[in-house]
Amino acid sequence: MPFFLHPVVFVGASTLLGLLFGLQAWVSMHSWYKHVTITFGLLMAAWGVQYFLLGVICWVLWWRFEWYVQNANARTMLTFILPLSLAVSVLEEMIWVAIFPQLPLGMARMTFWHRVVFELDGELVDSLVLFWSVFFLLRGIGYYQLYREKEYAAVQLETQFANAQLRALRMQLNPHFLFNTMNSISSLMQTDIAAADKMLEQLSSLLRITLERGDVQLIPLSDEMEFIEMYLAMQDRRFTGRVRQEVSVEPDLYDALVPAMLLQPVVENAYSHGLSRLDRDGMISIDVRRQNAALTIRVINSGRGLHCPEYTNGEGRKGVGLANVKDRLRLHYGSDQAFTIEELERGKVQVTLRLPLQFSEHSTRQLTGYGVS
Description:
Blueprint: H1 7-32, H2 40-64, H3 66-71, H4 74-99, H5 112-188, H6 193-213, E1 218-220, H7 221-239, E2 243-249, E3 257-259, H8 264-273, E4 282-291, E5 294-302, H9 320-333, E6 338-345, E7 348-356
Parallel strand pairs: 2-4
Antiparallel strand pairs: 1-3, 4-5, 5-7, 6-7
Helix pairs in contact: 1-2, 2-4, 4-5, 5-6, 5-9, 6-7, 8-9
C-alpha cells in the first residue's frame, strides 16, 4: 500500500482539508457579514469533523471494496457505485447532524430528521462531488500501482532471463575448459608423468575454486588473477619453458569487479591457436590498466597470427571460449563494453577487453606470488 493510502495519512489529509475550508469560511464570513453568530471553534470543528467522516468512510470503502473501485465498468458504476455514493452522503450527514445538534444556528428547533433533510438539501451535491472525486482519485492510484507492478515484474523477468543466460554460458564454459585441460594432461602423460600428476593437482585446485564461486557472476579481479596464474602455471609445465609469461596489474585494481572466468578462455585461445604452433620463443602478456572510468585488459601472444586458418576469431566451432566471453560482456554491460582482437604485427595477436570500472565493497589482499608451484 502506498504511504498516502495509510489510514492515518489519508484521514489526516482529509481532515486537514476540511480545516482549511473551515478557515476560509471563517475569513469569508468576517469579510462579508458584520454579525457572525457562530464561534471560530465551532465552525472549525464542524468542517473538520465533516471531512474527517468523509475520509474515514472513503478509506473503509477502499479497504473493503478495492476490487470494485479498480475494476468497475460503466454498468457497475451506475448500479453499485452511484447508489453507494448516495448512501455514503446520507450516512455522513446523519452522523454529522448527530454530533452537532446545535446546528444550524439562528433557526427554529427541528427534529433530527428535519435537520438531516435540511443539511442534505444544501450539502448533498457537494458530498457527491467529493465522493466521486475521491473515487476517481483512488481509481487512478490503483491504475498507477498496477502499472508500477507490471513494470517491476517486467524488470524482474528481464533480470532473471539475463541471469539464466549467464548461468547457461557459465555451464557451457566450464566443461569446455575441463575438456581442453584434460586433453593437455592426457598428452603430457606420454612424455612427463610427474608433470601430468602436478597438472592434475593444479586442475583440482582450479575446480575447487570454480565450485566455491557457485553462481556468482562478478568477482574481485584478485580472485580472477589468482585463477589465471594457476592456469598459466599449468600451461608452463605443459610447454616446458617454450613460452615466456608476463603479468602486469595496477596495484589499486585488485578490488575491481570482473565477470568470473573472464580471462581463462582468452588465455586458452592464445595457447590453442597461437602458442601451440611454436617450437620456441613464445610469449604471452597480460596487462590490466585503468583508463578513466574503464578497466582495460590486454592479452598479447605470439604465434601464427590471425591469418592462421585454425584461428576463428571467436565465431566458429573452435572459438567457443571467445564467443562466450563476448556474450557475457554484452549481458553484463550492454553497450558499455568492448571486445576487440587484432594483429599488431606478423604473428602477434592482441585481445582487448574494456568494461566499466566497478569496485568490490570489501578489499582483498594484493597478490604477491605468481602461479602455483
